[in-house]
Amino acid sequence: MWGETVDNPHRNARLFGFFVVGVIGVWLTINMLSAWYWSLASLHWPTTSGQVIASSTESGTTTLGDWWAPSITYEYVVGTATFRADKIRFYLPLLRDQASADAIRAPYVVSKRVTVAYDPANPGHAVLETGFRQGTWKPTLAAMLFWSVAGILLYDIVHPGMLAARLRPALRKDEYVDEDSGDQTEEVA
Fold it and tell me: What is the rounded CA–CA span in Å between residue 136 and residue 151?
């Protein structure tokens, strides 16, 4: 298996694809696990009172289309130190419509008093909405998709031709295999 020389003309392309898909999968997994960790940890953080000092909706355009994101800056005091932060929640993707971004931003108007949860080990690390929110499953699904594609590419690299043989369509109805010789022939009508 590993020591055999097998004719696989697309091996380098598949290795490159496996590397690219694998790197994206690792990046998505790290981001997902980080969001999960901080979402869970924030449930146990102490809270303090803060005040919103800036509130807006940002927008932009990528190759995938237009996006919007709520942008909130708030100030809070822990002990004798004053901190500024801008994290609303730990997983907040770019949104595809302005109304959704405005709905998230709406409760956080300038000068409003807010409850801020902060990391006791690093009080500069804070969030307004603790725990998991709607949509947290999306990066998990994306990571699973990339790992599945990476697995298929790896299988095809290690077992060249096996995947194509398994995915080949069944023989046409007008063809049959001669069981004695194994030859494929067409029926004559």
Answer: 24
